[in-house]
From TrEMBL:
Residues 1-43 are annotated as: Disordered. It is found in: Cell membrane; Golgi apparatus; Membrane. It comes from Elysia chlorotica (Eastern emerald elysia). Keywords: ATP-binding, Cell membrane, Golgi apparatus, Magnesium, Membrane, Metal-binding, Nucleotide-binding, Phosphoprotein, Translocase, Transmembrane, Transmembrane helix. GO terms for molecular function: ATP binding; ATP hydrolysis activity; magnesium ion binding; phosphatidylserine floppase activity. One of its GO terms (cellular component) is plasma membrane. It comes from the Eukaryota. This is Phospholipid-transporting ATPase. Residues 878-1128 form the P-type ATPase C-terminal domain. The lineage of its organism: Eukaryota, Metazoa, Spiralia, Lophotrochozoa, Mollusca.
Length: 1284
């Protein structure tokens, strides 16, 4: 078993590869229960030297024993047979537990694997027709018209002709199909762009550049810096020492900090194409699954034993290579079998809520139609008028006349247009036009990337106006993924401009000026800048062509700090395993790195012990304010000023760090170094001993100052969130990032604010989660289910239990009782599950917005999915319904386009039903007068063209151009959004009010016309008209009435509205004039010949044209006038103010139902407990005050401090319960002081404050390579291999 190798490859740098880490091997063993007994029986423990003389443990079990040092050749005295037996047993056990995948390196594969081509489109050539027809015939109207079209083919049944329904239905389906094809082509093009990306592949001993779609399992690919991985890969080697590489996984889990991956030692030396050609072996791994953070596999190279693979060697599709020149990777999972795609769901066929409601009303209308048809069929058989000659008719005709089934079908066909056949095609056209308006909106155009808003589907436009919940990603959606060193406090003096627009550098030059001019704080400034330049894990990389230095860092915060020091003339440019070189105002200074005390979320700090050029031993430390203040020495200068600056920085959402130093006595340091060395080589509880050793040296600090880093939000994010909140939209942030980072962004974007109470739930087991939820639920009391001024924070581990069946409802009740919810460290599936939970339980319209592949699940689960075309690729956009370039554009998309579209679509649907009911119920009134014969009152083609020509344009004009307020007014008054959000414009009550009104209009239109013709002579020569004469009278009055009704419903009048209304009336008169003469030319419709002359020549017609429409609409006009005067709505008030050119400002009616904690009480409450433990799930605190660490106060301490001067109130701030094995598992309930706290209490504890806005650290913890080993492996003076 090869343990240690030392040689220098062509690149020249020193490689000291280590085997897989203890943690990764332990996790592999834990993931395979069947291996446990083997590992327990046989223990292999090996110690290996690191370059700095430290000892690093590499093993496969927890039963560690001290082993002899490795031999010179790198082999261990441990019996090689034993090692081989263990590895073979592990392999056999794994094979028994799983059906494994075998991949042959540089050899043909024995299995056909999935293609690497992906598709997020809804259709392909084969599935389009069945999927499209399924989608269309989910609409009940289409099913109904298909039934009518089939029934019309039966001879002697249809009174309206055989094709009057079939042809319009085919037209509707053709238009819908064309729209779906156009929209899906966009998706195919986006997929094609992704599948056509280029990648270098090593095949048959040479490099080939191929498309991603051509990559297959078993290929060895070369990925360069900044490129995305084309498939799931096993890391073989890289340009960095020990096959290390940085990756950014924000596209997968939302985390912005870079993660470190490391290949196994056996392949780390393969740094050229020739080496790849000679590589042979087999990789055995688990079958594809959706677990992003789990992987089990083995690799067996030619003539070598199997070596384990873990997640530390896996590079997932969707992740991006960063700060690494290149890597070689072996493809193991491709296409839809990659973990990223397995976490995506099938593109759903979404339908809007309005469409679903319309479907249900169509069913009810169909029942009305059946009742009418049945009634007419029964009544027809009961009428035997003598003048119809029933007695002398043939038996065949008599059979047809008396056949109930025939009669029923006749009346069903006669009344079928009670359900408007034109509705679907009108909706498709209008929605498509609305989508074009969204695409053309220049207010949602992002010039920086030349990106317009894109409505990828038009089926959900009206849903945008009813959004109640927004689920948002954080990274890349709310933020720009850019860290800016914004300000700092040095020796009690604040420098920098927090709101500077210059993103490239720290803008305040006063720092350097004070240092050069010998300001009284110059010594502190010098140490401050030295700390920034030395205390970090950043690696500099100089561009050979330009000489510019690029800083490679896993933490974007650290990179920002080092860049800031270089702007202030402290340029870090060289790192070796033993020292760093910093150019201080032109003079290179060497700092010897003695020790690195690593950052963890529990320690909340990082320290570096260096020997300075002055031969002094200095400890530099940076960390959270509370941990630094706890460790200050007797010299507490600048503490008050620095804390004030920290509070100011945090209040505007900046990420803060405190900086301190301590000069060490050499003798004391070397004594401590021996203690630290023993702790670092301990075989039991090493991590705990290292922390205890660090505590011994990290003390008696001298405070230097503080830094403030801005995790730059996208422009307009706080304003957008504020306006959406005023529109009564609840916003939940679902992110894979760390909790303190998410909370920090919550304050920055104004989702959380200083007066809002925070409810933090961090539990580690199902039982503790259940107990915490029940406890918090009872705390809300009567306010449960109401919106309270509380922000809820929960992490992914706890959320996993909270979403289980027995906890789900309690979690939902609490979340819905909070004004804001932030879920941290959540997986893509958890995001989708949360969206689905709220969508199903609340029956509310949801919207999900994100920019990464990890957001695809929730985008597809929500009613409406919005993709941000940002820095994390286009996969979220490809899966979305709408895409925008910036989060702020969501404001106009919802408040303007959404509200307009909802109002327009509702009017369009209601009006379409109204105009059809108004005309076709007249057929029923005519049936009553003609002995239920089934005779049609109107000419068949005039009837067919009613929806196609004569009343087609008014609903289209309403659907495209009507608006009740201008865009500016709606943007400035988000309260108006509530009118559409509640769905009040279209529901069952509104629908049937319109239907009843249409029936009322049909009664007046028909019976008044009949009355006019019955009470007077139509022509002076005594002639009377036939049924078509009456029909053309009524038809004209209906067209005029329904057109004017459209005008009554129109609010915003433009020339297009005028054209649509008056043009519709003109079209009918023109058609009647021409159509009544066509018989003499082409021989069709003889019954209409000369009808125009008779109708237009009748004075009663013109009298009725004036009286009947006015009489019909009189009730509508009166009701509108009374309602506007007596029951005026927000919309109508705003309309009147807008017409009067008055300033319009409506305020939200939201009131805080819980009195928020005061600013002073909030600050003091943060002193009562270590917020780090509460916020990031660190060490659990005992309720025993004697065991409390410095700076952490217990309830007993509170009573002593307050001395009766304040009243304790129980608030919704809860410390997580202790781990099950801790001394006390009872949760510690925190009392938060009321607003009557005295000023003296505040000042007494000012130095112990712990601010709530997070600290600027985002490094990966417990990675494959620890921070010490990582920086010891680099020598930037040496060249890197090119990997060719």
């Amino acid at each position: 078993m090869d343990i240690m190798m030392e040689d220098k490859p062509a690149g020249g740098f020193k490689r000291s590869p280590a085997g897989p880490s203890r943690q990764s091997q332990a996790s592999s063993a834990r993931s395979r229960p069947d291996v446990k007994s083997v590992a327990d029986e046989t223990a292999v423990d090996v110690e290996m030297d690191n370059p700095d003389g430290m000892k690093r443990l590499v093993g496969v079990t927890n039963n560690y024993q001290h082993m002899p040092e490795p031999d010179r050749d790198g082999t261990s005295p441990v019996d090689r047979t034993t090692c081989s037996t263990i590895m073979d047993t592990l392999s056999v056990a794994s094979t028994a537990a799983h059906h494994n995948r075998q991949i042959y390196i540089n050899a043909p594969q024995h299995t056909n694997f999935c293609s690497n081509q992906i598709s997020t489109a809804k259709y392909n050539f084969l599935t389009f027709l069945p999927k499209f027809l399924f989608e269309q015939f989910r609409k009940y109207a289409n099913i109904f018209f298909l039934f009518i079209a089939c029934m019309q083919q039966i001879p002697n049944v249809s009174p309206t002709g055989r094709y009057t329904t079939a042809i319009p239905l085919l037209l509707i389906l053709a238009v819908s199909a064309l729209k779906e094809i156009v929209e899906d082509i966009k998706r195919h093009r986006a997929d094609g762009a992704l599948n056509s990306r280029r990648i270098l592949v090593h095949r048959d001993g040479r490099w080939l550049e191929i498309q991603w779609r051509e990559v297959v399992v078993g290929d060895i690919v070369k990925v360069n810096d900044g490129a995305h991985f084309p498939a799931d890969l096993i890391l073989l080697s890289s340009s960095e020492p020990q096959a290390m590489c940085y990756i950014e996984t924000s596209n997968l889990d939302g985390e912005t900090n870079l993660k470190l991956r490391q290949g196994i030692p056996a392949t780390s030396e393969v740094v050229s194409g020739d080496g790849l050609t000679d590589l042979r072996g087999i990789v055995e791994c688990e079958e594809p699954n959706r677990h992003l953070y789990d992987f089990v596999g083995n690799i067996r190279l030619a003539s070598k034993k199997s070596m384990p693979l873990s997640p530390d060697q896996i590079l997932l599709r969707g992740a991006c290579l960063k700060n690494t020149s290149w890597i070689y990777g072996l493809v193991i999972y491709t296409g839809h079998q990659s973990k990223l795609m397995l976490n995506s769901t099938t593109t759903p066929l979404k339908r809007s809520n309005v469409e679903k409601l319309t479907n249900s009303q169509i069913v009810l209308l169909f029942l009305v139609l059946l009742i009418l048809s049945l009634s007419c069929s029964v009544l027809k058989n009961s009428h035997t008028h003598w003048y119809l000659f029933y007695e002398g008719a043939s038996k065949t005709l008599d059979l047809e006349r008396s056949n109930f089934g025939y009669n029923l079908l006749t009346f069903v066909i006669l009344y079928n247009n009670l359900i408007p056949i034109s509705l679907q095609v009108t909706l498709e056209m209008v929605k498509f036009g609305q989508a074009i308006f969204i695409n053309w909106d220049l207010d949602m155009y992002y010039a920086k990337t030349n990106t317009y808003a894109n409505a990828r589907t038009s089926n959900l436009n009206e849903e945008l106006g009813q959004i109640k919940f927004i689920f948002s990603d954080k990274t890349g959606t709310l933020t720009q993924n850019i860290m800016r060193f914004s300000a700092c406090s040095i020796a009690g003096i604040k420098y920098g401009e927090e709101t500077s627009e210059d993103m490239s550098r720290f803008s305040d030059e006063t720092v350097v000026a004070n240092l050069k001019n010998g300001h009284e704080t110059a010594p502190v400034i010098s140490q401050f800048l030295r700390l920034l330049a030395v205390c970090h894990t950043v690696v500099p990389q100089r561009d050979a062509a330009t000489g510019d230095i690029q800083y490679l860092a896993s933490s974007p915060d650290e990179a920002a700090l080092v860049k800031a020091s270089s702007f202030m003339e402290h340029v870090f440019h060289t790192r070796t395993p033993d020292y760093v070189i910093v150019d201080v105002m032109g003079e290179p200074l060497k700092f010897q790195i003695l020790n690195v005390l690593e950052f963890t979320s529990k320690r909340k700090r990082m320290s570096v012990i260096v020997k300075t050029p002055e031969d002094k031993i200095i400890l530099f430390c940076k960390g959270a304010d509370n941990v630094i203040y706890e460790r200050l020495g007797s010299n507490k200068i600048y503490t008050e000023e620095t804390m004030a600056h920290l509070e100011h920085f945090a209040s505007i959402g900046l990420r803060t760090l405190c900086l301190a130093m301590a000069e060490l006595n050499p003798a004391e340091y070397y004594d401590w170094a021996e203690t630290f060395y023993k702790a670092s080589t301990s075989l039991n509880q090493r991590e705990q001993k290292l922390e205890e050793a660090a505590e011994l040296i990290e003390k008696d600090f001298v405070l230097l100052g503080a830094t403030a880093i801005e995790d730059r939000l996208q422009d307009g994010v706080p304003e957008t969130i504020d306006k959406l909140a005023k529109a009564d939209i609840k916003i939940w942030v679902l992110t894979g990032d760390k909790q303190e980072t998410a909370i920090n962004i919550g304050y920055s974007c104004k989702l959380l604010n200083e007066s809002m109470d925070l409810l933090v739930i961090n539990e580690e087991s199902l039982d503790s989660t259940r107990d915490a939820l029940v406890r918090h639920k009872s705390d809300f009391g009567e306010q449960l289910g109401k919106e309270n001024y509380v922000g809820m924070i929960i992490d992914g581990q706890c959320l996993k239990y909270a979403l289980m069946h027995d906890c789900r409802q309690d979690f939902l009740d609490i979340a819905l009782s909070c004004k804001a919810v932030i879920c941290c460290r959540v997986s893509p599936l958890q995001k989708a599950e949360l969206v689905e939970l709220v969508k199903v339980s609340q029956k509310a319209i949801t919207l999900a917005i994100g920019d990464g592949a990890n957001d695809v699940g929730m985008i597809q689960a929500a009613h409406v999915g919005v993709g941000i075309s940002g820095e994390e690729g286009m996969q979220a956009c490809c899966a979305s319904d709408y895409s925008i370039a910036q989060f702020r554009f969501l404001q106009k998309l919802l408040l303007v386009h959404g509200a307009w579209s909802y109002s327009r679509i509702c009017k369009l649907i209601l009006y379409s039903f109204y105009k059809n009911i108004c005309l076709y119920v007249i057929q029923f009134w005519f049936t009553v007068t003609n002995g239920y014969s089934g005779q049609n009152l109107f000419e068949r083609w005039s009837l067919s063209l009613y929806n196609v020509i004569f009343t087609a344009s008014p609903p289209v004009a309403i659907g495209l151009f009507d608006r009740y307020c201008s865009a500016k007014v709606m943007m400035n008054n988000p309260v108006l959004y509530k009118d559409s959000q509640g769905g009040h414009r279209f529901n069952m009550w509104v629908f049937w009010v319109w239907i009843i009104n249409a029936i009322y209009h049909s009664i007046i239109l028909f019976w008044m016309t009949v009355g006019i013709l019955n009470t007077d002579v139509a022509f002076s020569d005594g002639k009377t008209g036939d049924y078509l004469f009456l029909g053309n009278f009524v038809y004209t009055y209906v067209v005029v009435t329904v057109t004017i009704k459209a005008g009554l419903e129109t609010i915003a009048w433009t020339w297009l509205q005028h054209l649509s209304l008056w043009g519709s009336i003109f079209c009918w008169f023109f058609f009647l004039s021409v159509y009544s003469q066509v018989y003499s030319f082409i021989g069709i419709s003889p019954e209409m010949y000369g009808q125009a002359g008779y109708v237009f020549g009748c004075s009663l017609f013109w009298l009725g044209l004036f009286l009947i429409p006015i009489t019909t609409l009189l009730r509508d006009i009166v009701w509108k006038a009374l309602r506007r005067d007596l029951f005026k709505t927000h919309r109508q008030t705003v309309q009147e103010m807008e017409l009067a050119n008055k300033e319009i400002k409506l305020e939200s009616t939201f009131r805080k139902r819980l009195k928020p904690i005061s600013e002073r009480a909030r600050l003091l409450s943060r002193n009562l407990i270590s917020l780090g433990d509460r916020m990031i799930g660190g060490g659990r605190r005992s309720t025993n005050s004697s065991q409390a660490p410095p700076g952490v106060y217990t309830p007993q301490d509170i009573e002593g401090v307050t001395n009766g001067s304040c009243e304790l109130q129980k608030r919704y701030i809860q410390v997580p319960s202790q781990a099950p094995n801790s001394p006390s598992s009872a949760p510690l309930e925190i009392g938060v002081m009321s607003t009557s706290i005295q000023a003296g209490v505040m000042s007494a504890s000012v130095q112990a404050r712990s601010y709530n806005d997070g600290f600027a650290f985002s490094q990966e913890e417990h990675g494959v390579v620890n921070q010490t080993q990582f920086i010891r492996a680099y020598d930037t003076r040496l060249e890197k291999p090119e990997g060719l």
